[in-house]
Amino acid sequence: MTSGNIVQDPFLQSVLTASIHARQQCLQLIDLAERSAVAPSETLPYDTKFQLSAKQRQLNADLANLRQASRESIFEVRATKQDTAEARQEVDRLHLQLQNLYYEERHLRGEISACESYDHQYQQLPLIPVKDFLEVQPQHADTDEKSLMFARINHELAEREVLEQQRQELLKRKQVLIAENKKRKDDLASLDKDLETFIDAAKPIQTLFEKQY
After folding, report:
1. Confidence of residue 212 (pLDDT cuts 50, 70, 90)
2. Whole-prediction pTM value?
């Protein structure tokens, strides 16, 4: 796998291309210098000097472009790192938020399960059977289970209110009867007392009659 296949970013590919080109220019300059080497006492031909100078200028230009591209790539890498760090922070925040949502969902599911399995007091009410209720309230025949339960509870409440009213009326009647019975007892006690007084008053007369007859 070549470096060109590894590097996918267009800007970095341009930097890599400039680097390869500068290397080629350097190798060409070295090769030209080696082929044009002469003895210290000899002078290079004018054409050779011109070629070496042109290659040197081209190499300097390529190196300058490479340094500029290298600086820009460093800035680009720093910016990419910054963007990556910010993106990682955002991902971490979203991951934490997702985890919190998972925990909240699990908690809510537990609460729902607890509510569904809770032994509600209304389930212990001595309600009349559904069949008997529907005979009394046939309009609830097509009612869903929840609404039917509410209707049965309300029916039971109404029945108990009627029974409570009847109980209160019977209690009042009982109190009236107790008061009447007490009054009669008091009247009888008073009558007994009056009768005893009458008998005591009549004893002298009875004694007198006994003496005479």
Report:
1. low
2. 0.38
